[in-house]
Amino acid sequence: MAGFAFFGLQGLWQESMDTLALTLSAVLVALLFAIPLGVWAGLSDRFNRIITPFLDFMQTMPTFVYLAPLTLIFLIGPASAVIATVIYAAPPAIRITAHGIRSVPETTVEAADSMGSTRWQSLVKVLLPMAKRTVVMGVNQTIMAALAMVTIAALIDAPGLGKTVMQALQSLDVGTAFNAGLAIVVMAIVLDRVTTASSTRAEQARNSSGRFLKWRRPLLGSGAVGVVVLIYLSHTYLWAAQFPGDGTTGTHIANAADSVTTWAQDNLSGITNAFRDAITNGLLNPFQSLLTDSPWWLVGAALVGIGVVVGGWRSGITTAVCVGLLVGTGVWSDAMTTLASTVVATVLVMVLGIAFGVWMGRSTMVDRLLRPTLDAAQVMPPFVYLVPFLALFGATRFTAIVAAVVYAVPVAIKITADGVRAVPETTVEAATAAGCNTWQIITKVQLPMARSALTLATNQGLIYVLSMVVVGGLVGAGALGYDVVAGFSQGELYGKGLAAGLAIVLLGVMFDRITQAAARRTRA
């Protein structure tokens, strides 16, 4: 209730409801086929092997790439936006549902089979009930992905908060962008909390011995009748459909954001420009020159060698195939430029991820303070924080790298913190008893024992950074991101844009396979 009231106070009630309608429509359509496919993948190893490459492709393909063909078929507007959102949001539900089904203990299934249960009865009475929490988590992730995609779909004239953010980006209106972005964050938090709580709501009600339990169903029925009446009133009377007030809270928020940005430009430009030039000239430019000026076969051989050493011979084969296909796309030079930016951004992500992740993993208070901020950063649309970075650093490759780091670092911090926290306390106590100081405990005990989590954090950091490549193309990053954006906006360049999108997918698959194989070898 507080979240929805906040939308009205911001002056963004209609935009928020448009975004909510598109999100829920896409989620309902996605779940209609995602959950059955997830159940099938959980029951059948063969189907799981068949569908996994398609899911990888759907998740790593830049959203801009399939926005264009959808608009050709379904025209620009909400219909294309919903379909694009369905494509983007379905894979998490399929993967997590399959994982939930596979996580049910085999002994439980065998016990049901021994009692004469059919496959359908085992599914409905055993597998799905025991995997309910995991399935709900899949629904939660689908909602989060759909909300992020609906914002991007503003590029094809999808209504809602995304259009407000895009218009603010074009005019560098930091305040308006921040206000609309804050509304998206609040909506994400509301939807996240509702879906997460729903997984335990029924169980808590059954375990409750209070008087409320007997009145629960009548109260729900009365509430449903009240909702129907309110819907009728809002469709009949204008006063019932409009949010009261003039949204002055949103104006105050926008003015405050503008003031902070202006202060930063006036007082921090010397520091930000020096930092930008140091990273660009000292790290990015030399590394990029090394990749783009070297023969393609030498760079390809080095990548294959890294794949074999880090991930094993299977990763080496996958890398070799991806390198061959990258050469075939005809955008090798742009791919190497993007690779350089991606590696630099990932290094910065892991430096921050390890520093803050260790801090969070070792301190419960720090975890409580930082985690809400990290949650907000994960659901904040990339377009929102591109605006202040543009104001601070200008339209350069460095701006795209900073935006990618801000987008990817929350997940790296969380995974690292969980890995450090998972180190047994007895091991830490033994190191302390042996006379180790704090630095030695971190570097000699906790980080080595959390290597698996660090590898996973690197994997997710790479994937998140790559997902920002196209967004970076909007702010001067060039290379593959610009190729995709140009192909989307100019029909004669669509072929090159499609090739660039495929190149981004190949880079994502190559990095994903290498880091996942490295994680498995670390656990072994």
Describe the model.
With 524 residues, this protein is mostly helical. It is 87% helix and 0% strand. It contains 25 helices and no strands. Helix 19 packs antiparallel against helix 22. The longest helix has 46 residues.
What radius of gyration results from the CA coordinates?
25 Å
The shape is globular
Q: Poorly predicted ranges (pLDDT <50, ≥5 residues)? A: none
Give helix and strand order, one letter per element, not per position: HHHHHHHHHHHHHHHHHHHHHHHHH
**Major beta sheet summary:** none
Number of helices, where a helix is a run of at least 4 consecutive DSSP H or I residues:
25
Write the layout of secondary structure elements.
Layout: H1 2-9, H2 13-43, H3 45-60, H4 63-74, H5 78-103, H6 106-114, H7 119-130, H8 132-152, H9 161-171, H10 174-207, H11 212-236, H12 238-241, H13 248-293, H14 296-311, H15 313-329, H16 332-362, H17 364-379, H18 382-393, H19 397-421, H20 425-433, H21 438-449, H22 451-467, H23 469-473, H24 479-489, H25 494-523
Concise summary:
The chain is mainly alpha-helical.
Summary keywords:
mainly alpha, globular, 524 residues
